[in-house]
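2024-03-11 09:14:02 INFO worker-7 job=invfold-0412 stage=load source=structure_tokens
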């Protein structure tokens, strides 16, 4: 398969960052340190994500991590260019939304005790929803005149596969927190597809 394991340094860096924060606690009035609640756990000890997850929940998180990771890298390509201000502004919004979501998805996988391997997933998936290396290189090498069009076309397709992953989670998943993330992703990226389509048609 071509280009389905891109942008691993971002994933590894996020994993290390999340892991460093996992052991922090809060100081009590008696001077002792109480461990902080794990991701997805409420102050009352209730876990909205819970242990009631299934393989579809795990697959959603493992597949969405490299997908978001790649979207951030592609957004950076637009931010490096002096192109259409509307495209640059959209790329900044995408990056600002998806970087925190990456941290949330990684926290879910840690909570479930699931391993996140480089490239995302557990090695059993081909990640066909990812942009190919060929497309990424076309974006890097595109002239100023063609970059915005190619970027919009590529991200419309990329968002479409994210919506498919989110819809699969809402259909087959069991974990309430994972499904909440999926609903947010689907709603936002559908709206961005509409926005990108309008820009492309201008």
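2024-03-11 09:14:09 INFO worker-7 stage=emit residues=202
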């Amino acid at each position: 398969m071509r280009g389905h394991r891109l942008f691993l340094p971002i994933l590894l860096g996020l994993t290390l960052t999340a892991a460093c924060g996992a052991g922090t606690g809060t100081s009590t009035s008696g001077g002792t340190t109480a461990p902080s609640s794990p991701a997805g756990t409420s102050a009352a000890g209730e876990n909205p994500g819970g242990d009631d997850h299934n393989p579809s929940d795990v697959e959603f998180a493992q597949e969405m991590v490299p997908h978001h990771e790649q979207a951030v890298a592609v957004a950076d390509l637009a931010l490096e260019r002096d192109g259409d201000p509307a495209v640059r502004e959209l790329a900044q919004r995408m990056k600002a939304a998806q970087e925190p979501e990456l941290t949330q998805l990684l926290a879910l996988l840690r909570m479930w005790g699931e391993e996140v391997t480089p490239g995302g997933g557990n090695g059993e998936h081909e990640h066909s929803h990812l942009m190919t290396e060929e497309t990424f290189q076309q974006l890097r090498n595109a002239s100023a005149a063609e970059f915005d069009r190619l970027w919009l076309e590529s991200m419309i397709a990329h968002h479409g596969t994210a919506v498919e992953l989110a819809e699969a989670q809402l259909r087959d998943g069991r974990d309430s927190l994972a499904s909440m993330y999926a609903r947010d992703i689907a709603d936002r990226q559908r709206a961005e597809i509409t926005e990108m389509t309008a820009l492309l048609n201008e």
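2024-03-11 09:14:09 INFO worker-7 stage=report msg="The mean pLDDT is 79."
2024-03-11 09:14:10 INFO worker-7 job finished
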